[in-house]
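Exam prep: given the inputs below (a chain plus NDP), describe the expected output before reading on.
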Amino acid sequence: MNEKVVSWGLIGASTIAREWMVNSIRKHPLGRVKAIVSSELSRAQAFSDQMGIPDAYDSIVPMLSDREIDAVYISTKNDQHLSQALAAIEAGKHVLCEKPLALEPKDAQSIVEAAERKGVVLATNHHLRNMESHRAIKRLLREGAIGKINSIRIFHAGALPQSLKTWRLFDKSAGAGVIYDITVHNGDLLRFYLDSNPTRITALASASGEGANGIEDSVMSVWEFPGDILVQCHDSFVVGHGPRGVEIHGSAGSILGIDVMSQAPGGSVVLRTSDGEQDIPLELKVTYDRGVSDFMAAMQGKGRPSSTGEDGVWSVKLAKAVAQSAATGQTVLIEQV
Ligand code: NDP
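Solution:
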């Protein structure tokens, strides 16, 4: 593809599209947002008016038949990603899809295979691996700054804003719960840090009553990675005032990522060794900008998306393992294929 304008269609009049993704697409010199689809026409129209998007639809059909649309960004409720991604791929669109790609690994895998058959780019919008803080951490790990890694602790526990206390807490069939919302990101981040997949996971979850029907709003899990690396994750929708971060411990030091489990740029990364404590300088960049620009480069045959479809399959597989362990009380062994 030449350096031509890329027209995007958005499937989902969502908060993340409104707060982040439309801006990130528009910041790219070739990115244009042409259409928005919602299940309610009034919501699509309100979104298009507010964001200055030319076309508004209440069905994906007309948007997917618009030959000017090159790429689609899907940010509907979790249970809708599968059918919408398959339809967009079938229509020959490149697809940037929100996590989780689907609610079952085999369904996520079917999206990957459909994209391969059609020859379109598929990416998963895992944002943490695109943040300057996590990229700095990965650089330190690669350079051996803390020696052999022995353990990681992830604190991904926050409070849902009032406006998001909807399907995430009340609609199991939509893919509700903290595991498919938050833990799924940890899986991607850990694979990004370690370049390997966990071998087993044990978890316990709880429902504090914020949501309905026992939908879990907190989960703690322990993961084992090759090389005797133990990981502990605490993910929650009901922790209002805790810091959200990561600690990585190794034979020669520790890395602390403070306030780095968020959508906004910021936080800090500190390296602690026997030489003392060092603040790692970070640029403040919007994480979603990199996801969009890597995706658009991949459309032009330059490189791969930062988080691929395969990465999205893995994160679903790992989220499912956490959910299964929490439901059964059993440790879940992770198939490596
Ligand atoms: P929202 O709840 O804001 O939007 C999801 C869907 O809910 C929309 O597509 C919309 O349906 C419907 N909806 C939105 N507002 C209303 C309303 N006022 N009344 C009725 N329905 C409404 O979700 P998020 O933006 O938080 O999340 C969307 C997706 O993005 C999820 O899959 C989530 O996992 C993912 N996500 C990813 C993040 C990341 O960093 N990668 C961060 C946040 C979310 P319709 O389109 O039919 O109008």
